[in-house]
């Protein structure tokens, strides 16, 4: 067959400056469209001739030597024809319309059981002409289905959404292949569909339970020392309570604000604070309180979490008063009073004794 009389570039739908990668891509696309499996039986002979022509074009253009010789023969034949007939250069042969697919292979990648995924297939003509009619010949396959299948009429492009799954546990693992058939005008386009079914990943380990919040007390133990009934003292101890993680306190209170030898004087209830501060004052001690060491609990509740402050005191006998200037003045006044009272009694006794003695001697 004399190749100089055939425009092999037009056969593949390429320009004359196309590189090897473009030639291979165009050849594969045209072969898929021209294959007899996708055409009616009466077109088998025409399809065979088109495939022979496609193979000739591919074998000639992919070899740099053959391609250069072909281009040279084409130019020489064209020049000779122009010189012989002196006819104007004929217009370039219009490129045949080709059905373009994007993507050419629908690959859903790797999916595990229970997972689903969508892919969109776009079909259009190479010259951007209008597609008279198109539809999917089958709206579902072995592992996929067309979302909202419908016929298309007089559109510039057809967009089909394919969806996988969800896959069940009984689906076989590994690579699986199928084909989507689309009727475009008078041609059937076959689109390969692939998927790789993999085993589902193991479930994540259960999350560890949150660490419970703990109350930090400062101080945790209080020692009031020696106390006795009637003791007058205003000594106070400040106790601070907070959470160890620094979280805010919504509600705080003292569950038992008083004991047998202590009581809370301020801050027994608080809300919406970062720390809870109370003041514990010692005393008073009941008169019938036994003389011994006592340890009692002050229970503090922060947002339902309870912690204890331990309060200790030694209940003893009252101490003898110390001698002071005021005590000495009182002592002197008391001694003087007793002396005057005794003197008065002696005086009265002397008068009475004298009277009795006088009566007896008369």
TrEMBL record:
The J domain, residue ranges: 7-74
Entry keyword set: Chaperone, Membrane, Transmembrane, Transmembrane helix
Entry GO MF terms: unfolded protein binding
Region (Disordered): 76-98
InterPro entries: DnaJ_domain, J_dom_sf
Stored SMART domains: DnaJ
GO cellular component assignments: cytoplasm
One GO term (biological process): protein refolding
Domain of life of the source: Bacteria
Keyword Transmembrane helix: yes
Compositional bias per record (Basic and acidic residues), positions renumbered to this chain: 76-88
Segments traversing the membrane: 335-360
Cell cycle as UniProt keyword: no
A Pfam family hit: DnaJ
Protein name: J domain-containing protein
UniProt source species: Streptomyces sp. R08
